[in-house]
Amino acid sequence: MSRIRERSWVRSLNAADRPDARAVCCFPHSGGSAITFGGWSAAVPPDVSLMAVQYPGRGDRFAEPPVDDVAAMAGCAAAELLRLPPAGRLLFGHSLGALVAYETALLLRDAGEEPLALCVSAALPPGEMSNSGVHLAPDDEFWATLCELGGIEPAVADNAELRELLLPTLRSDLRTHANYRPRPGTRPLSCPVRCYHGAGDPLVDEERLEDWARVTSGGFTRTVRPGGHFHLTHDAEGLVADVLSQGRA
Questions:
Q1: Kind and range of the H or E run holding 88
Q2: Which pLDDT does position 5 carry in this prediction?
Q3: What pLDDT is stored for residue 15 in this prediction?
Q4: Which of 12, 30, 49, 95 is catalytic?
């Protein structure tokens, strides 16, 4: 497997026996980083390559300014994936990451390497977002809203210094999510789309998820998991197994 350079967009999270066979590439949520999916490596078979996208403004890219455009983020991720040996790819995106994964799937398709499946999690269909003005809220209200969703560790939530460091990136990501609109006339994918919904997620109306079916001609399925907006922290092994089952003939 080609070596992914340091501080790149796409990071390898395991050492696969046959990295040219199948690969899962994960796209994190607003404020999330590649390490969000580090725990998945134990649930991935040794012949599957596990990768995750590292957006600027977090982890070892913390000093870099965030990118505030979904299409630009996807363009960077897709360019790096296309430099790797061709493989049967599964894309998994959570919340903001679902939109970046969708745009990446379109770019891979246009380059002749459409993924085996697109897996989207905790996100309304492209161009829709509940509470789209949350990034405009005052600091205390904004932070409290994020903490209530469960995506911020208690130790971080109570640390004023860390809060001040994280707020700009979180605001940028949520503004990026709110401003995203799919390109008019975009041709549907032909790969299957699998949608994951966390029961009780206050940000995602389950009834509106069926509109994800419009982005593909290759079939749409959805499933409900416990855990609310951050359901991916519950039964990671079960989630990984389900993702890996997608795209099989």
A1: strand 88-94
A2: 44
A3: 80
A4: 95
- With the CA atoms of 166, 169, 172 and 174 taken in that order, what torsion angle do they form, in degrees rounded to the nearest 10? -60
User: Which of 138-152, 208-222, 223-237 is predicted least confidently?
Assistant: 138-152
- Provide the 3-class DSSP secondary structure of residue 221: strand
* 229 classed as catalytic: yes
Please say if 12 is a catalytic residue: no
Give me the mean pLDDT over the 161-175 stretch: 88
Per-residue burial over 107-145, b if 16 or more Cβ lie within 10 Å, else e, is: bbbeeebbbbbbbbbbbbbbeebeeeebbebeeeebbee
For 118, phi then psi, to 5°, come to: -110, 120
Catalytic position from the list 29, 94, 197, 229 = 229
For the chain, domains (ranges, CATH) are: 10-125+186-244 (3.40.50.1820)
